DNA sequence: GCAAGGTC
């Protein structure tokens, strides 16, 4: 059998392109975590069997080990010296397993990851997954390609090199620095400010070397606007009547900031009473057609001209790409590759009802070779791939597609050419002028009409000619502050300062919006909030470095030394981390300076929220603060208890938790089918049973209720054996969809229902019952909890008007006929053998109290029952 | 609940 060669690309689309180019399209493709394309061919002069597959971006990402994950027990300062661990970015995709399986039996590994630093780093992630490094006799190759075209792919195959460890380690360094700095500052700020103020309205008060300078740009503009002092100015405009035109002339001095001096000049001119033509100049001006469209420029146009935010614009572009209407939308390049098929692309648009005529004219008259632009070596500029109409795409996608087509056609059109005539006049020693414009060649502006040059007609003059002044105006004006930063300007600033990448710029902008630091207002202008302003002004007071754009370039500069092999990876990381650690210590020490700004803007916790429920420690009432992050505040104990987000919270019949005496609350998710569940504020924040997060495996990723790390135990997850609200008491039977338990929604009357404590499965119970409750008995057949139904007298299905019925919802014929699955696939008696309404036979958890651990813990030990 | 970087 021929030896095998495994090739790995950064994304499925590149794997496909490489396999197609090398096999000439003769390959077989099979599914896996990502597709694998196979074919036979020659490699280094020998016949081999090729397998081409891909990862999906980074395989791994860095984080802190579990013992540093708890916000309460970890001092953020310790994070700087903490170890970091790599784990799979998307565990569910099983990329690592996929690579390891595919690498089995292969003698060569060819790395086709993108040719940038991140790609180089992913190379080593791939090597690690395949185990190639540690296996003798196996050879690793790096393909260096500057475009994903057949020519470049073949060229790269003939000049394979080795992966560059230095570049990869530079990325490792960046990851560690970003993680430690970002997380340490974020945790400290969040705990400090959310523990003090009740109306900050952000779940997390984050810091990051990209997002913070991004916010800094918006706040800088805000401060410029606020500190702007308008100044009055005056301008002089003589008017002439000439050949039937009234012309308003402009002053060569443009404007003066002194009224008296302006008046003086006016008098000089008035005394003369006429203007003399002293110069006529005419020149041809060329307005260049655009270069190819890259991602950042697309995002800028989308925001400023189409009103789409970067996030939406990318979503639309990706959809257009997967549907085959445009080329790959993530690229830095504005230069088309030499092999670009202009004719083919034009041909695809030739029948379009909107531009068809224009395209056919380009094809028949001969299109222009595009301007050169820059080639970043990634993907060709964004171009249309096939013709579409508004009906096919829908309004928003159509707008974006339309722009991409117009831009593409613009790049192949002639430049716009026009003549510009300037007539200069003199009067009373002062110079004035007027300008006329006449378009000679519309060129690309006929397909991009918003860039068109306006035609300005002026009559003909001859030099030396004298013309009477009909009147003179002195216009008064005042200087204007700049407007708030537009999103498009922000994208430019980020790009210029090296903050974020084409893919991450939208994410950073989205972040500062979501965290409530800025708001997008009319015209997509970014107006900072009180929170955003307080943060940036706070950094400016304590350590301006923290919010300046240089912070990113400083890090980039340091890791560039690693990339170039001029400095050792661990020494650089150590050095940079040490500097940030010092900054952090100073920041913490000086936090009162920032806090003074917060004090002026926000209300302390004690003044926020409304009284809701009793604290189990001091038995006084606590306040509920509904703004993000939703939480309870006990003013006596000065403790905060976070509550589930995005829903309503009410007192639950003044019942208390038997473990800690806190009053129970009921949380209802929004919407008519939003489920409700009781929870104890103390248990929710301090789950009493170790390992509760992992007890049901997928609990954190189940879409229904998001549970935080180390927090988030509602009663329906509580394994307390006797409390009437616990999963043990309220659980009825196993969920037919997942490993969860169906529990009774205690406040769902009259539309009684069960819901799964892990997934979205919902089961409706007999409607109109007065009361439905669980009993302590369970079904001898299937182990489900026996329920008690008290039917309405008028609608009871029972004989002789009886209302009370007790039975198992799966085995009792009457009840089974009345239950109905709302969400989920099936609800059948097959589920019965998995029934586990009560705690019997459950595997894997051990209820361990922690009464002895902490002195202040009011909770009894589980063993005390 | 945390960063920034890939990509879907």
Automatic annotation (TrEMBL):
Keyword hit for Secreted: no
Matching CDD domains: TOP1Ac (cd00186), TOPRIM_TopoIA_TopoIII (cd03362)
Function, as annotated: Releases the supercoiling and torsional tension of DNA introduced during the DNA replication and transcription by transiently cleaving and rejoining one strand of the DNA duplex. Introduces a single-strand break via transesterification at a target site in duplex DNA. The scissile phosphodiester is attacked by the catalytic tyrosine of the enzyme, resulting in the formation of a DNA-(5'-phosphotyrosyl)-enzyme intermediate and the expulsion of a 3'-OH DNA strand. The free DNA strand than undergoes passage around the unbroken strand thus removing DNA supercoils. Introduces a single-strand break via transesterification at a target site in duplex DNA. Releases the supercoiling and torsional tension of DNA introduced during the DNA replication and transcription by transiently cleaving and rejoining one strand of the DNA duplex. The scissile phosphodiester is attacked by the catalytic tyrosine of the enzyme, resulting in the formation of a DNA-(5'-phosphotyrosyl)-enzyme intermediate and the expulsion of a 3'-OH DNA strand.
Stated name of the protein: DNA topoisomerase
Alphabetical UniProt keywords: DNA-binding, Isomerase, Topoisomerase
Region (Disordered): 827-865
Any Gene Ontology biological process: DNA recombination
One Gene Ontology CC term in the entry: nucleus
PROSITE patterns the UniProt entry points to: TOPO_IA_1, TOPO_IA_2, TOPRIM
Top EC class of this enzyme: isomerase
Domain Topo IA-type catalytic, residue spans: 164-585
Biased composition (Basic residues): 827-853
